[in-house]
Amino acid sequence: MVYVHTLDPVLLHLGPLEIRYYGLVYVIGFVLAYFLLRYLSKRKDIALSEDELETLLLYAAIGVLAGSRVFYFLFYNFSIILENPLQLFKIWEGGMSFHGGLIGVLIGGFFFCKQYKKNFYELADITVIPAVLGLGIGRIANFINGELYGRATTVPWAVDFGDGIPRHPSQLYEAAKNFVIFAVLWILKDKNLRKGTLFWTFIMLYGTFRFFIEFVRQPDSQLGFVLFEFFSMGQVLTSIMVLIAGCVLASWYIWPKKP
Questions:
Q1: Closest CA to 175 of 206, 147, 137
Q2: 221 secondary structure, DSSP code
Q3: pLDDT at 26 over 90
Q4: Per-residue confidence (pLDDT) for residue 79, from 0 to 100
Q5: Is the pTM of this model over 0.70?
Q6: How far apart are CA 61 and CA 134, in angstroms?
Q7: What average pLDDT does this structure show over 101-123?
Q8: Which long-range contacts (CB under 8 A, 24 or more apart) does 55-61 make?
Q9: d(CA 144, CA 206)
Q10: Nearest to 232 by CA among 165, 176, 154, 148
Q11: For residue 19, what are the contacts with CB-CB under 8 A and spacing of at least 6?
Q12: Where are the chain's structural domains?
């Protein structure tokens, strides 16, 4: 029997105001990031004051929100932003691109490190740990919203998201993917690894898992095209991630260095 998705994306109605799961997830994500970054920075003996930590999270928040929204509409729903530019600010309705958020947070992190004279890779290695945990929780919010669902399927755990078609709950696949990556990074965090290894491992694992999940995820419309009738836009972008991360990690750990 197919599960019919009837979850209300609104947690609470407070008069004209609504508290949605989607927005609540972002709040939870940044609270978790604060405490995890404080813990990890102390464990790694990284000099990061309370003020600097709060500033880092502020830069990251601005980068994630701005980058993910702009990238999503540019690459997936450009026609919507042309018709109604204000749609860009309606974050509670969903529509966030991981790749744009990644670029945004990297830019924010770069400016933070430059301003406070920090080692970029040192901070990136501890930042990706709470980040991927937040991404996992965010995909659960996508499931509650009934968005970013999968392709039609006959698997026993298929979900009807309101169109009468049993589909893969690809949001939950992605949530599981992120929790697995979190576990891997948590195990590696205490290893004696070169600075930047955790960051590029995150990029490699995320891109690899996401590439295969795209086969069961419903492609976005507009520019979410299928390249050569095989690969979606998401797979094209994640392939670039895997290629770059693979080259960096290989140059550090596999390819012999000339004396």
A1: 137
A2: S
A3: no
A4: 58
A5: yes
A6: 12
A7: 93
A8: 55/112, 55/116, 56/109, 56/112, 56/123, 56/127, 57/30, 57/33, 59/108, 59/109, 59/111, 59/112, 60/33, 60/105, 60/108, 60/109, 60/127, 61/30
A9: 22
A10: 148
A11: 10, 11, 12
A12: 3-189
- Alpha-carbon span 86 to 27, nearest angstrom: 22
Q: Which residue has the higher pLDDT, 255 or 162?
A: 162
| Cα(131)–Cα(196) distance, integer angstroms | 15
Cβ-contact 106, 72 below 8 angstroms: no
Dihedral sign of CA atoms 47, 52, 53, 58 in order:
negative
Q: Are strands 231-232 and 10-14 parallel, antiparallel or unpaired?
A: unpaired
Lowest average pLDDT, out of 67-76, 122-131, 133-142, 218-227, goes to 218-227
Write down the H helix ranges in the chain: 21-43, 50-75, 78-83, 98-116, 120-145, 170-188, 197-213, 233-253
pLDDT at 221 over 90: no
Total residue count of the chain as it appears in this document: 259
Lowest-confidence range among 11-15, 26-30, 57-61? Answer: 11-15
pLDDT surpasses 70 at 94: no
